[in-house]
Amino acid sequence: MSTPAWILEIFAAVMLLVAEVSAGQLVIARAWTRRGGTDADITVSHLLMGIALAGIFVPGVSTLPNAVWEVVFAVMTAWFGWCLWRESRGRGAAAMARGHYAPHLVHSAAMLYLFAALAGPSVEGSGMSMTGTGGMSGMAGGSPEGTATLHAPTLALIFALLLIAFTIHDLDRQAGKDGYFHVVGRRSVPAGSTLAGAAAGPVALSQPTQSDAAETVPRADPGAYTAEPLLLSPAVVKGCQVAIGATMAFILIIMILVRHQHFLILYFGIVRYAMAGGLVFTLLVVIGSPRPFDSSRSLDSGDERDTAQPALTEPSAAAEPPRAAGRGGRNVRCDAHGMQHE
Amino acid sequence: MNELALRRDRATTSPGTDARRVLQLILAATWLLDGMLQYQSFMYTEAFGQMIGDTAAGNPSIIARPISWNAALVEHHLVLLNTVFATIQLLLGLGIAYRPTVRVALAASIAWSLAVWWFGEGLGGVLSGGASPVSGGPGAVILYALLAVLLWPADGRSVTAPSVAFRAVGAPVARLLWLVLWGSLAYFALTPANRAPQALHDIIVSMTGGEPGWVIGLEKHAAAVLAHQGLTTSIVLAVALIAIAVGMFLPPPAARSAVILALVVAAFIWVFGEAFGQILAGGATDPNSAPLLALLALAYWPLATAGPRGRRPRADGPPAMAVGQAESNDGRPEEKFV
Q1: Is the ipTM, as predicted for this complex, more than 0.90?
Q2: How many A-B residue pairs are in contact by the CB < 8 A criterion?
Q3: Any CB–CB contact under 8 A between B29 and chain A?
Q4: Is some CB atom of chain A closer than 8 A to the CB atom of B92?
Q5: Which residues numbered 222-261 in B keep a CB inside 8 Å of some CB on A?
Q6: How many domains is chain A partitioned into structurally?
Q7: Do B28 and A250 touch (CB under 8 A)?
Q8: Residues of B in contact with A168 (CB under 8 A)
Q9: pLDDT in tens for each of the 338 residues of chain B?
């Protein structure tokens, strides 16, 4: 007997819910627009992780082949690695661990490991029906005990412990207290609107300017407003992050069974994706591209970005003297969170 | 602008996260890990029920009978009960991590730990003579209960607490608990079963089943070093444990040394005696006792800067501290204890 299928289905359902919520956040926030896309990368990662994890738990809802997911999460890992490095460079390892992107980097890397470790040839040859779908139907018939296993279980344990640590840390953190749980593209709402308090976190309660209100009104979508307070609340963002972290740790833990020691196979897989990630990283450095959705966001657009959008174009922010660039020519304009900058 | 950015940077630190809260979060993470381990395939096999039943051996009948009853119950309703067990532990972890429910979760964890210690671990072999500090005696789960008591979010009568553990129950009780725990470990290290020439060697060798190659290598090497050295090793271990036990009654520098020694001993036990809790072998229900011993030791770490509660907050603290208040574990404002 193995872990009952209905337990896995519950986790799959939770992951699908996370994916749906993330999709809703992207739609409501109009993430494809420049002003609506703050933290869109994180929300997109939640969306993709939700879909991928659900497919691992229940093969019936799997969508893409393992190889595709590997590439997706390799790129995602490289992206969050780049963001984290940019966010905390020169501040040491401790600042990096506390960085806003740290949990997302770990999530992405864990997903990459998960698919890479599952995709080894020996596992595919052991009868697990993961062929092409990435499904974990091996949970019902792969290994002698009927549980799919991962290569390099030590790595799985390390990832699981990291994920648990970040999950506990996220759970302890009070949603909306400090703006850590950013809300994708949280729009400014007209002053006095009932949505002003509901949709925006406490940090966003500063009064928007007239230009904010004027700019927001044309974008108003009454239909979307009904869901906005809920979907864009920091508590929901926190819930999604906690759910993904816990579910990922769960799947890694229950798959730690030492049956095969094909560390080298995994090693070469990681090397392959590390090279791909390095290529992406290099391209990002060469291009010098900031975040794709909010390239014009300034340092002052952090927690107050919900209502302080005009700061994007304030001369004082744009014309920050060179000292703000700091060591290594730090780009003070490219970080969306404004929390880790000098 | 820089000041604003720095304030945001500091704001990423959870408000109200003091040393005790950090230890609570580590305890929560351990419970969460336990819950996930309980969902593993192995726990849904009959071996889990048998594992529980085996702990009855050697115990007095009044202790052993409920254990056998529990084992039979688990074997008959394996899926349901194991899922309930796993979910309870998962919820305990989440509950401790979530500030509004920390008290309820800690209280529940004490009750749950005591129940598991008896019905699931046979009191850790304390009464059967099988407890060994190297292999997890007197039971990891009882340490969860002890930690929940010591990390309880209340400050009792201790106005100036020299360590986190003293805050909830006061210094005398906390020191007594420390003495009993480490003293009992020293006693168990010297029992006939544990000081036999091959006792330690056999314990370490028995931990290699199902482990990855590098763990097996570590264990075999340690076992070879300790072969036929059971008595000597037991005496050395007991001396170290006694030094730890009495160290808490000495001045802060010596107490700090005792805590460091406790951390070192816990690390050795976890690596060599417990094989990292055998988590990598796929059949562990928890990371075993050593990480909890280490966590316990951290709770007793003498705080050099300890002072009265509500002392002036750090000037460079996060915004929540700047006003002299942070939120306590139950969401109510309390003064910071840095």
Answers
A1: no
A2: 141
A3: yes
A4: no
A5: none
A6: 1
A7: no
A8: 25, 28-29, 32, 93, 97
A9: 333 333 433 433 344 558 899 999 999 999 999 999 999 988 998 889 989 999 998 899 999 999 999 999 999 999 999 999 999 999 999 999 999 999 999 999 999 999 999 999 899 888 888 889 998 888 899 999 999 999 999 876 555 678 899 988 989 999 999 999 999 999 999 999 899 899 999 999 988 888 888 899 999 999 999 988 889 999 999 999 999 999 999 998 899 999 999 999 999 999 999 999 989 887 788 999 999 999 999 999 987 654 444 444 443 333 333 333 344 444 443 433 33
Long-range contacts of residues B229-234, Cβ cutoff 8 Å, at least 24 apart: B229/B197, B229/B200, B229/B201, B230/B194, B230/B195, B230/B196, B230/B197, B230/B198, B230/B199, B230/B200, B230/B201, B231/B195, B231/B196, B231/B197, B233/B200, B234/B189, B234/B190, B234/B194, B234/B195, B234/B199, B234/B200
Asked whether residue A315 is domain-assigned, the answer is no
For residue A171, give its domain range. 5-184+231-294
Measured in Å, how far apart are chain B's first and last C-alpha atoms? 28
Rounded Cα distance between A179 and A29, Å, is 17
Question: Chain B within 8 Å of A179 (Cβ-Cβ)?
Answer: yes
CB-CB contact of B202 with B228 (8 Å): no
SS3 assignment for B290-313: HHHHHHHHHHCCCCCCCCECCCCC
Query: What is the pTM assigned to this prediction?
Result: 0.74
Overall number of domains in chain B: 1
Is residue A215 a part of any domain in this protein?
no
Full domain range(s) for residue B79: 18-152+162-301
A220 within a domain of the structure (yes/no): no
Tell me whether residues B11 and A178 touch, CB distance under 8 A. yes
Residue A308 lies in a domain: no
